[in-house]
Amino acid sequence: MTIYPEKYRENFRSVFDWLDKRPCARRRGLGTKLPFDKDWIIESLSDSTIYMAFYTVAHIIKNSKIKPEQLIPEFFDYIFLNSGNAKDLAKKSKIQKSILEKIKNEFEYWYPVDQRHTAIMHISNHLSFFIFHHVAIFPEKYWPRTITLIEPVIVEGVKMGKSKGNVIPLAKVQEDFGADVFRLYMSHQAEFGTKMDWKAAEVYSTKKQLERFYDMFLQLSENKKFKPTLQTEIFLSKFTRKIKESMDYINNFNLRKYMQVAFYDVMNEIIKYKENRITPEVLRQWLILLSPVIPHMCEELWEKLKDKEEFVSLAKWPKIDEKLIKPDIEEIEEYLDNLITDIEQVISLSKIKKPNIYLYTAEDWKWNILGILKNNKGDVGKTIKESINKYNEIDKSQITQFVQICAKKRLWDAELIKIKEEKVLKEQKGYLEKETGAKIYINEKTIIERRAKNRTTGEARQDYFKTDEKNKVSLPFKPAIYVE
What we know:
By secondary structure, the chain is α/β, with parallel strands linked by helices. It has helices spanning 9-16, 44-47, 51-63, 73-81, 86-93, 97-110, 123-137, 170-176, 179-189, 200-221, 230-251, 255-273, 280-290, 295-305, 327-350, 364-375, 380-390, 396-408, 421-427, 429-436; strands at 2-4, 24-26, 32-34, 37-42, 116-119, 146-150, 153-155, 158-159, 196-198, 356-360, 439-442, 447-453, 460-466, 480-483. Helix 9 packs across helix 12 (255-273), helix 16 (364-375) packs across helix 18 (396-408) and helix 17 (380-390) packs antiparallel against helix 18.
């Protein structure tokens, strides 16, 4: 049996050592009288531990109008213990054979309990007897699979209790926020094995985030135009990676990180790439991924997609298409993002409106020498010596300066995937111009006339600058930038 967090397994073991003193706990109150001593009552929390087995079939018993006197011991032996058969039981109980089989199938569908979730204070009583009674009564295949535990809930940093007047009824939560807001907040804030601190301000913030999600999804579902670009591939790679990551979290009972990735991280990625780059299939998978936590809103939005499956709750869980995860193009995205940031900083410093930006990428020899530096694990002297011998056509001082800069920036220790920078920049020239508002030139040899004042005399002077001279300071993954 899985106990999560695992640290509480020892709590169960220590309780088991003394719990034989607990079952007959009192002489008054509600509960089942001890068969061999009617003066004692079995404590209700100790006694009521397999009620969930009855929950699986109670609705059929009620709808079939089965009378209490028909629920003979053989009935429960057949349903819960696989004892006897429906034909003989039908004769004895006067319950139709088809109804008995239906009840049996319903129990088989729902049992065993996959996950029992409650607070740690129940370890010393209810949960321990929950385990004992299942093991004592049921075949092993019906024993509980998992117990998950949390610390008590507190409110605004204070323990919740009637005496403090800070108990929050669920009906009030539903009235003020709605079920989905509550579920999203609790899933993202609570964590197994820790206290959950209910803070009203954070709940209202969660409500706004959910409203933002709803409005954005409606907008995206109406966008029928779609033209694939490099950004489309980048987004699909990152989205697929997020699905995989979130599934790993939920499979390991980490609801907090599951919702951080599946809801908040994915929403941020979609906001970044939403312009004509979000396919209906992405929206479909996203809703399925979120439906366990915010089912009501997901069902409403699912209708907008007009999927062949009527309800999102009936849709199959997304399958991971590993081929869509492409680290190389995600590296390109990081490269472009960093470059856009650098260009914007240069423009800001220059205070030039609508400037021309000249970009110069690192030559192949720089990538190769960086490879040598990596192989030498940052040994500057050894790398300089090897590089000068190998690239005698390159100025020694330039090689030395390049190696020293790479070592200082620890580029040799970074996980850089070599890309064809010039090719990428030329393909993404329009994207760069749109993002920066500048006219972009890539590896162009241009002579620019420059006018300036002599710092000493204040006289105007004029000179000429070869823009490709900036190429000397370019680094792998960091093009040199000249602004005009």
